[in-house]
Amino acid sequence: MNRLPKLLLIAAVSVPVAANAHKGWLAPSKTVLDVDQWITVDAGVSTEPFVRDHNAMRLDNLVIVAPDGSTVAPENASTGKLRSTFDLQLKQAGTYRVAVVNEGLMASWEEDGKPKRWRGNAATFASEVPAKAKGLKVSESQGRLETFATAGKPNDGALKPTGKGLELQPVSGIADLFAGEDATFRFLLDGKPAANLDVEVIRDGTRYRNAIGEQHLKTDAEGLVKLSWAVPGLHWISASVQDGKTSVPQAKERRASYTATVEVLSP
User: Fold this and answer.
1) Which range of residues forms the domain containing residue 73?
2) Helix, strand or coil for residue 27?
């Protein structure tokens, strides 16, 4: 049995990036609530954001950071064919960050005349991949997919950058996004401003429009990008970058991607 299609499917679901044919997304039921209220979050991979028509997003690497910086577990998590879903009770006042974080290495080589493939991380690479493998090819990826929810007064305890890969740092308040107003975000790569980065924005409802209506923007020298919201609703924001900053010398290129879902409210 050829294992390649299965491996490609796993890679597509695990590392959501804007350039792929399918897009990963998180869809929270609400993002601005009172303390002790609940939200439900759907997670999927589809032709366009929020359209449940391809595959469920795997939740293996789901990380939820509470307003005080601690991590909390989701409740009632389940995975179906077209979406995964989980619940979260906002027990603390402040802003929560909900993220699916995927990173790792993929390698392929030839052994005894047969193709070999491997997927893992830098810690196990040396012991599991032959150093002098014939035709060895190694690639590295870092993917972060996020959404946010705020109970009561917003704070930034959960929003501190990790300094690893591509990230978004809100300049405008993440819980204060309103139709008809501009918002500013900063993109960071390994903790530093990501200049000249292509950013794509798609609002919910593509299924009911004749055109996708995406926005294509670019960050400035300080990694800043200004977004204008024409209508309320969920908005999908995505960017990716390629460079040579890899964790093992055999990998010549790293691809870092970032995707966020934010909710724009009615004024």
Assistant:
1) 4-104+138-264
2) strand
